[in-house]
Each structure stands twice: as structure tokens, then as C-alpha cells.
Specification:
Number of helices: 3
Strand order of the largest sheet: 1-2-3-4-7-6-5-8-9-11-10
Structural class: mainly beta
Oligomer: single chain
Largest sheet: 11 strands, mixed
Radius of gyration: 15 Å
Helix content: 10-25%
Order of helices and strands: EEEEHEHEEEHEEE
Number of strands: 11
């Protein structure tokens, strides 16, 4: 996990948002390979193992590893990220495009939440597991792309919550209309919007 990602993370437990503390045990450059994340508010501790942060165990019914119906260049067009800086979230099977998307938009810190099996972290792509929503502070990311497995129910509200105003929201679910997200386009199996 990219150590700077800690600045936008929050504890998934039910209490007001506050900062988290990352305690690295082993580092590889700016990546925490082994360590822990602690919440000063409730005392919860979350492990980082092999570069992956675990905010709880995700059920075995993780999103399948079939690739999305488009490539990283198409997802980049949907999320419309321009320039470096900030963070972009890819959940579910969109995390399969994380490394390629990071190569297309250097300088943005990409991270995946609840990716399919086999998605590994890299220098440009962090991986988080969280069964109870997005462990991310409100209004803190430049783009949200919710792939299959994370594009329904409460995940939609969570995606809208963490997105900065005026930026893009993509969901692999054409039947959605998330609160606070203005529709820009809708097609077979895909919704693209912008946070009001």
C-alpha cells in the first residue's frame, strides 16, 4: 500500500471520520509491504500483509476475474482524469485495469477496493479489502469506478460519498441512478455521471 494513501483512509467502524495511523514494519520504496493501520478513535487495528491493507475479510463471493468489457484507455475516457496528483478508486473488477490505468495517467495514486483474486499491488497501484464499505474519507478522490461486484446497493452511496464535487463516477450497472450524481451517459451495462 502506497504510504501516502493513509491520508485519505478512514476507519470503517461506525463513528465520525478521523485520521488513521499507519505503522510500517517493512517498506519497499514508498510502499508499505507489511505493517498495520490503527484508528485512534475506536482502537481498531487493520493489518497490511504483502502490500495489501485488510479492513476486514471480504466474503468468498468476490467479483469474478473476467476482464471488463473495455480497456484502460476507455475507462480513462469515462473518468476523464487530467494531470497528476490525487487519488482514484477502482472497485470490484475495474481493479483489473489498475496498473494499465496508472501507466496512462502518471502521478495519480490509483487504488483498488475488493478486487478479484489475483490482482496484486504495485508501485503505482494499491489494494484494499473492506467488506463494510469504502474505508476512504468523504470527498477525497478524483474519480470513482465501481466495477461488477461493487456497483449495487450501498456501494453506490459510498462511491458518491468519497468522490470530490464536479468529478466523474462510473458504475458497471446501467440501471443505477446514485443520489448526488448527475447522469452524463448510460449504455449497455454502464453508467457515467458527475458529482453535483
Amino acid at each position: 500500500m502506497f504510504i501516502e494513501l493513509t491520508e485519505i483512509l478512514r476507519c470503517p467502524n461506525d463513528h465520525p471520520e478521523s485520521y488513521l495511523v499507519c505503522v510500517p514494519v517493512a517498506m519497499d520504496g514508498r510502499r508499505v509491504v507489511r505493517g498495520g493501520i490503527g484508528c485512534p478513535s475506536c482502537g481498531a487495528e487493520y493489518p497490511i500483509v504483502d502490500g495489501v491493507a485488510y479492513f476486514g475479510l471480504v466474503e468468498a463471493a468476490a467479483p469474478d476475474a473476467r476482464p471488463p468489457p473495455f480497456d484502460a484507455a476507455a475507462l480513462q475516457a469515462f473518468v476523464d482524469l487530467q494531470g497528476g496528483g490525487g487519488y482514484a478508486l477502482l472497485a470490484g473488477r475495474f481493479a483489473l485495469l489498475g496498473r494499465d490505468l496508472a501507466a496512462l495517467v502518471p502521478g495519480v495514486c490509483f487504488f483498488g477496493v475488493n478486487p478479484p483474486p489475483g490482482v496484486e499491488p504495485s508501485e503505482a497501484f494499491s489494494v484494499l479489502h473492506s467488506p463494510r464499505g469504502l474505508p476512504v474519507k468523504s470527498a477525497s478522490v478524483r474519480a470513482v469506478a465501481l466495477g461488477e461486484g461493487c456497483a449495487t446497493g450501498p456501494w453506490l452511496a459510498e462511491g458518491a460519498r468519497v468522490l470530490l464535487r464536479g468529478l466523474r463516477f462510473v458504475a458497471e450497472n446501467a440501471g443505477v441512478a446514485p443520489d448526488g450524481i448527475a447522469e452524463l451517459a448510460r449504455g449497455p451495462g454502464l453508467f457515467v455521471g458527475e458529482k453535483r
